[in-house]
Amino acid sequence: MGFSKDLGLMLYVNDVKKEKEFWSAAGFEIVDEQEMMGYIYFTMKTNVNSTTSITVYDKEFIRQVSPEVIDMVPSILFETDDIETLQKKISALTDTCSEINEQPFPNFNFACPSGMYFAVKGN
């Protein structure tokens, strides 16, 4: 018995509503939205067929149920077949989007509304 092919990541943010608006505008599919203990959270995927999901939780909720992980921030690398178009789309959503760098491979980075940075690699 081992791990399944599916992978779920969790992000802890200051404003779940702002994050949902941002990631939806960036092109992510919101696949689930629920409430737990009075806090809204949502799950998104890069596209509906992805085996990786990202669930976004309010930091205040995490402080109550699992305070030992509140400061853990993953480093996430997304991939795209059209880096120029995606970089333009993200740069229109946030002023934290970098230009496309060519080394060590075509890439750019950006921050979401909560200030966490993400990288994007071109294929």
Describe what this molecule looks like in 3D.
With 123 residues, this protein is of the alpha/beta class. The chain folds into two domains: 1-72, Roll (2,3-Dihydroxybiphenyl 1,2-Dioxygenase, domain 1), CATH 3.10.180; 75-123, 2,3-Dihydroxybiphenyl 1,2-Dioxygenase, domain 1, CATH 3.10.180. The chain has three helices and seven strands. The strands form two sheets. A four-stranded mixed sheet has the order 1-4-3-2. A three-stranded mixed sheet has the order 5-7-6, covered by helices on one side. Strand 6 (107-111) and strand 7 form a beta hairpin.
Which terms summarize this structure?
4-stranded mixed β-sheet; 2,3-Dihydroxybiphenyl 1,2-Dioxygenase, domain 1; 3-stranded mixed β-sheet; 3 helices; 7 strands; 36% strand; alpha/beta; 123 residues
What is the third-level CATH name, the topology of the largest domain? 2,3-Dihydroxybiphenyl 1,2-Dioxygenase, domain 1
Distance linking N and C termini:
33 Å
Structural classification: alpha/beta
> Sheet with the most strands?
4 strands, mixed
* Mean of residue pLDDT values: 93
CATH superfamily of the largest domain: 2,3-Dihydroxybiphenyl 1,2-Dioxygenase, domain 1
Question: What is the tally of beta strands?
Answer: 7
* Name given to the CATH architecture of the largest domain: Roll
Bin the strand percentage.
Answer: 35-45%
How many independent structural domains? 2
